[in-house]
Structures are given as C-alpha cells and as structure tokens.
Amino acid sequence: MSTKYIFVTGGVVSSLGKGIVAASLGKLLTARGYSVKIQKFDPYINVDPGTMSPFQHGEVFVTDDGAETDLDLGHYERFTDTSLSKANNVTSGSVYLSVINKERRGDYLGATVQTIPHITNEIKSRIKEASKSEPDFLICEIGGTVGDIEGLPFIEAIRQFRFDVGIENVIYIHVTLLPYLNTAGELKTKPSQHSVITMRSYGVQPDVLVCRTQTPIPETEKSKLALFTNVAPEAVIECRDLDTIYEVPMALEEQNLASLVLKRFNLKDKEPELKAWKNMLSKIKNPSKTVKIGIAGKYTKLSDAYISVVEALKHAGAAINAKVEVEFVSAEECLDMEKTAKVLEGFDGVVVPGGFGIRGIEGKVNVIRYARENNFPFLGLCLGMQCAVIEYARNVAGLDGANSSEFDESSEHPVIALMSEQEDIQDYGGTMRLGAYDCHLQKGTKSYKAYKADVISERHRHRYEVNNKYRALLAEKGLVFSGLSPDGKLVEMIELPENDWFVASQFHPEFKSRPEHSHPLFFGLVDAASKRQK
Ligand code: GLN
C-alpha cells in the first residue's frame, strides 16, 4: 500500500502532549501489524536542538545516525519500539539553511526565493524523505500551537501535501485543550472552536479532534464540539490526564482512535497485540515495592532535561515490579563527604547523568566517592563516567588534582581529555562524537553479564574521553575497563568488581531503553538498589 500520512497539530496552548498522542497512535497502529514512522517539525530557527539549553528545551535526544533531536523522538521510539533517524526531526532553521544553501549555489536559476513555494516545497520534500522507506504510516507532528506566526509555512505545506499525494492518503488530527472553569463548574469548548476556525482559515479541516481534559467530557459538549468544528461526533476523542504516559495508548484504544483512522483510510482493522504493553502497565500501576533513585545532575527542577533517564529508570522498575521514585539530587550541595552522605540518605541508588560545564562537578565527584566507598548502587552516564574516572584517579590512584581538561585546562593530571579528532573543531553545532558506535565488552565483567553479549551498539554525544596515558595506572589500581571501542582506543565502559553495582558508560544507554524491555544497565542499577533495601 502507499504510505498514509497523519498530520498532528496543536491548538489553544503548548505542552498539550501532542508528542504522546502521536506516539500512542503509532503504538496502536504498530500493535496491529502496520509499519509506522513518526516525524516532528519544530518551527524554531535553531538548526537542531543540540545547542539549546536543556533547562529551556529539555533533553537533546540522539538517534543511531547521530542526529541531535527533540525529546519527542524519544517518546516515538519508546512507544513504537523503532529507531528513527535524522530525517525524523526537522526545524525551520534546517529548512531555511538548505533553501539558502541552494540559493547560493544558484539552484533556483534566478527565481525570487519565497516562503511559498520554496520553503513549503522544502518542507514537503522532508516529509517525503521521512517516508522514503515506505512505511504504512507516517505520523507527522507540527510543534507549537496553531496561530503561531512561525508555524504557518508548515501548516501551508501540509495543506498542499494532501493534494500532492491524493486526498485519500492524508488525515489531520488536531490536539486541543478543554479548560475546566471552576467558577462555572464546566468544561469550555470555545477555545477549541476558535482554534479549528484558525485551522480552517489556513485551508485545513481537522478530521479528528483529540481533546485534552482533566474531567470526562459530557456527551452534550462532545456533540457541540462536533457541530461547531465540523468533525464527526465519533471523531471527537477524549484524552484525560492519566497517572502514566504509558496509559495513553490504552485510553485512546478504548475510544477506537486507531480503528477510526483505519476506517478513514479504508484500511483493514485488526485486533491489536497489546499483551506485553498491558503487562508492563499493570506492573507500573501495581508495584510491590518502591525504590528511590537520585539523579545527581545540574538541572534540579526540570525533569524534561533528563527525560530518557527517568523513563529508563521506570522501565527497569516495571521489570522488577517496583515503583521507581526519581528525585533530583543537587550535586552543588554535596560540598564535603558529610553533606554528601546526608543528601544521599534515603536513596537506594544514584545516577550521575550526562552534562556539560563545570557547575556541580565537585559535588558529582563526592557523590561517586560515596557510592564507591559505601557499596551504594551507582550508574554513571557520559559525564557521569568521566567524573567516576576523575574520582578514582584522585582518591584511589593518588593523582592529586586529576580532572577533565573540559574543567581545568592546566590540570596536572588530565585523566579526561579532548578526543584528538575534536581538537581543531570551532563550531559547536553538530560536531561532537554523535550516534551509535560498537563497543566490545570484556568477558566476566558485570557489564558483560548484564548485556549477555560480546559486542553492543550504543549512542554517544561527547567531546572528551578517558586519556589513554592513564589507563595502565588506573587499571593497576583496580579500575576495570569493561567496554572498549572495537580498535581498543576509546574507553566505553568502566566498573568496580567489588561493588554490587558501580558501572558507568561513555555512551547514553537511556536512549535505547524501552517500556517493554528495560535496558540492562538501568535494570542492573534498579535491581541492586532494590536488593540493597533488604
Ligand atoms: N561534557 C562531556 C563531553 O563533552 C560529557 C558530555 C555528556 O555527558 N553528554 O565529553
């Protein structure tokens, strides 16, 4: 069959969870045996989110092919259990960049280069690119809110696209908000009516409305919405706030969203295979115990900055039927070992996640020292591994002042140093060691036992690495280099054999954890944390 396109737009406010709705529909279609790809358009001018602050924008999600993307791609991959690529995240900046490059090359043969048709054509070519593998469905989410000036070229492009590929091959889903007014005691449909009016003024009539709401939508309001927005009553779908995002596919399934979409496309509906998903959900919803894991990072309040780490911890919890409570540990408070012990009191394990810049580094080193000396379950990710090497060098190998040259260029012992291929790089955007690389695991180590494999592939995003000049000394002092790049030149994993779980990786395993099969390294941490309670 030819690819069917489902465009998802958002109305009234941002942060509606359009990404979760797109991912959930993806899940329901894959559960029926259809192949699905999901693409995200971000209307900002940054070429990719790689240079944006995680505090503002949340985590930068990395794909196998090394794209730095919006965190929604993480949801897409986790819900549909597929790996996406560069083509699946497109920003206005990347669209303009290629149009301007083409203009400079003279590709437009003297034409005046304009938003319509040049920018819109470029957007449409990106939609085609994302569906090059001919999936049964491409779900394409337009970031931002309808009515935003910067979103207009995208809406215009998806309007045109329907005529390019045939109107029977495209549907539009509008995700909107029904606010509840306490004083009136009712849900209000007017903002959504206006949002659809705005869509129609752009020439796009939504086929389905997904209504975000805190309370059930009365039938009367559903009919009213259907009437005023010109959407069939059965296509007004309620999407309530739920305890976990993994419940959303089930809630949408109950309202026949996927069946309705298939009907619109004249495609066969099938019984969805959701057994493993339901099993995972019931474990998340009925845990037999609670495990408390701290994340010792830089961004203490905003969970989105570490969203894949938090999700990976939850997946590991589901695998052992435990609720994982994640709390942010302020590394900046861990000024000495006494304070560190106090901060970690009450936790069962700790993650030191990835990051950039010197803020909080000494505290992270103290957290890791505490974990090493007290057999406290620890998982280090990227910067977390680098800090573990610094800690070991200083406190076990006796290398006073050991540091990463990222934080102290004149360190006497730069145990973490810039990778040689990074030395001459000037631009910050898209120039790190990015994407999937193979790693060879050393037999007999905890890492090897966790993965049950000789060779693994994991995703990277870093500039610095373990300095090979110090490897022999650190190994002699007991640090185990359990994972190396295939040529043996880069340290990919370290661990301490005497601790129950003290494992760290230069890569980011969190990007490959899935709700239905938790990642071995997160499983190792949560399992050790749970056993430590006993
Ligand atoms: N700042 C470190 C580096 O560039 C770690 C990066 C990270 O944690 N993603 O190597």
Instruction: Determine the N-to-C terminus distance.
Output: 55 Å
Judged by helices, strands and strand pairing, the structural class is alpha/beta
Strand content: 15-25%
Q: Radius of gyration, rounded?
A: 25 Å
Ligand roster? glutamine
| CATH class descriptor name of the largest domain | Alpha Beta
CATH architecture of the largest domain: 3-Layer(aba) Sandwich
The number of domains is 2
Describe this structure in words.
The protein has two domains: 4-273, Rossmann fold (3-Layer(aba) Sandwich), CATH 3.40.50.300; 288-533, Rossmann fold (3-Layer(aba) Sandwich). The model has no long low-confidence stretch (mean pLDDT 95). The protein is globular and about 75 Å long. It is of the alpha/beta class. The chain contains 18 helices and 23 strands. 36% of the residues lie in helices and 22% in strands. The longest helix is centred in the N-terminal third of the chain and has 16 residues, at 115-130. The structure holds glutamine. Glutamine (GLN) is lined by residues 354-356, 382-383, 406, 461-464.
SSE blueprint:
Elements: E1 4-10, H1 18-30, E2 36-42, H2 54-57, E3 61-62, E4 68-69, H3 72-80, E5 89-91, H4 92-105, H5 115-130, E6 137-142, H6 152-165, E7 170-177, E8 180-181, E9 186-187, H7 190-201, E10 208-213, H8 219-229, E11 236-240, H9 248-254, H10 257-264, H11 275-285, E12 289-297, H12 307-319, E13 322-330, H13 337-344, E14 349-352, H14 361-373, E15 378-381, H15 383-395, E16 403-404, E17 414-418, E18 433-441, H16 446-451, E19 455-462, E20 464-466, H17 471-476, E21 480-484, E22 491-495, E23 502-505, H18 520-533
Parallel strand pairs: 1-6, 1-7, 2-5, 2-6, 7-10, 10-11, 12-13, 12-14, 14-15, 15-23, 16-17
Antiparallel strand pairs: 3-4, 8-9, 17-20, 18-19, 18-21, 21-22, 22-23
Helix pairs in contact: 1-3, 1-9, 4-5, 5-6, 11-12, 12-18, 13-14, 14-15
Glutamine binds next to β19.
